[in-house]
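User: Write out your own:

AI:
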Amino acid sequence: MPDGQRAVTITEVATRAGVSISTASKALNGRGQLRDETRERVFAAANELGYQPNALARSLVQRRSFTVGLLSTESADRFNIPLHMGIENALGAGRVSVFLCDGRADPLRERFYLDSLLSRRVDGIVVTGVRTDARPPLSTVPLPVPVVYAYSRSADPNDLSVLPDDEHGGRLAAEHLLSAGWRTFAHITGPMDFAAARDRLAGFRATLADAGLELPDRRVYSGPWRESFGRDAAADLLDRHPEVDAVFCGSDQVARGVLDTLRERGRRVPEEVGVVGFDNWGVLTEDSRPPLTSVDMNLQELGELAARRLLSMIEGHRESGLIRHPCRLEVRASGGAPAPHVPGGIRPVG
């Protein structure tokens, strides 16, 4: 603040925003159940007036540091980037700063960073990962601050874990392909020791069963999450089961390989075969030939949800268990257009 310039008070912020002082305080401190538009109006007023809260005084009064630790398994992973954006968006709205620590899936590094974060008196910790399989909790003894696991699942049911609903994603893929009129399905996915691969297959199969169709094991291929595996699996699929007219892929990398083989074999997508991927990784889906329909795990929203739950726990609300956040389908060309309704469910030819 320049010499001689008077500090803006929270009373002035409240007056500018047209709210009470207590509402302005809750909005600026990330507390209470306020409407998003109210919180945004308070922030806008604070920015216009140049309001700068006294961080030290706020910490002393509320006995909080207004900092949170973000302990990542792989901070540069493509799944963690949107996840971290969502976490920081939600925490930033509450004027909470974030300490990012990259544990690199190393228990010793993770323990070091945990001790470091606790020594800095963080108000809470978010743990992020790259798999939805259960992992050991941060500590075998109760920690002095709340912890939320995001795109990472604690093996301790007393912890709170927030995961994408992979089974729901599989259902979305099946519903889309069924709506396009396809009737003979295959699935090419990653290793079955990944919970995500098993859940996506379960949701896909369940939806086909609801429609009176089956997906036999002989038309399910499991292997590395790589384009090369997608190419090889698709080649074997076409040799053994040329009748297949729809393929659900467990990742966009696998789907790109499948599209390559279909194109090389002269099978037109989506005229003769429908294909749906998973992850909605823009660099792969948008430049595919044709553009790839894909399931999006809504990772930024998932991160925001996890951060909001952590803020609630910091305020004293106890939460535990497992939250599965819904996926969405990003429809492009590869899955095929919904088939016109024909009495008896017969798909028109030609």
